[in-house]
Design brief:
The chain has 226 residues and is an alpha+beta fold. Helix content is 25%, strand content 34%. The mean pLDDT is 85.
């Protein structure tokens, strides 16, 4: 699939000429100064759906020669969640880069089928590689988790050639926690009840103090001087 984004140079002084279909953006890197550009909002949404932040695409400015780029940051309207500004970074293909890549969990865990709960501290991990080696995702095979003692660490992941993980090899990527026993569940429920009771007691105590202060203040207002 061809991943191409055609954009136009933008004059920051002409913001008043922007339309609702335009999206302001800036390109950084590539040995050049930052360059303000305009992106078609529909073109951006269509491409971003496929590449997110971890896939390279060809950026063509005003019909020039394509350069490799990545989306670096997307600012959105906090109410409508529509994109309002995009930062892109031009990539040099001869220099290694570090980037967060999503983990793709595949397969079925026997331990989960026995009632265990999946424990996955990471949804993505940082990798180091040349740009043309950058994977779109890294697979994590859950079928290797047959018991509650099994675990998959960073060092167990199968990586494409030329890709390194910056995490410690012993760092936990995924495991399956055993279900709580009836005794453990009872202890947890008792602990939760105790926490709620403590919070309620503290709230009642504060309320009583406040009511006491209000009563004293009221008494001070009605008391006549001797």
């Amino acid at each position: 699939m061809s991943l191409i984004l055609n954009v136009k140079k933008r004059n920051p002084a002409e913001n008043s000429a922007l339309t609702d279909t335009d999206l302001k953006a800036v390109v950084y890197g590539g040995g050049s100064e930052s360059r303000p550009i305009l992106i078609s909002k529909s073109d951006f949404l269509h491409l971003f759906k496929d590449v997110k932040y971890s896939s390279l695409f060809d950026l063509i400015i005003d019909g020039g020669a394509p350069v490799k780029a990545l989306f670096q940051e997307v600012q959105v309207n906090p109410v409508s969640m529509d994109p309002i500004h995009v930062d892109l970074i031009q990539i040099r293909m001869d220099q290694a880069m570090t980037l967060d890549v999503p983990l793709e969990f595949i397969g079925e865990s026997k331990a989960m089928k026995m009632g265990g709960t999946l424990n996955k501290p990471y949804e993505e991990i940082e990798v180091e590689c040349l740009p043309d080696k950058l994977p779109k995702s890294i697979e994590v095979d859950l079928s290797k988790l047959e018991t509650y003692e099994d675990r998959i660490t960073a060092g167990n992941l199968v990586l494409p050639e030329g890709v390194k993980i910056t995490l410690d090899p012993e760092e936990l990527i995924v495991s399956v926690d055993a279900p709580l026993s009836e005794e453990d569940q009872k202890k947890l429920e008792e602990a939760n009840i105790g926490d709620v009771a403590a919070v309620t007691s503290e709230a009642d105590e504060k309320k009583g103090e406040e009511e006491g202060k209000e009563g004293e203040a009221e008494a001070g207002k009605t008391e006549k001087p001797a």
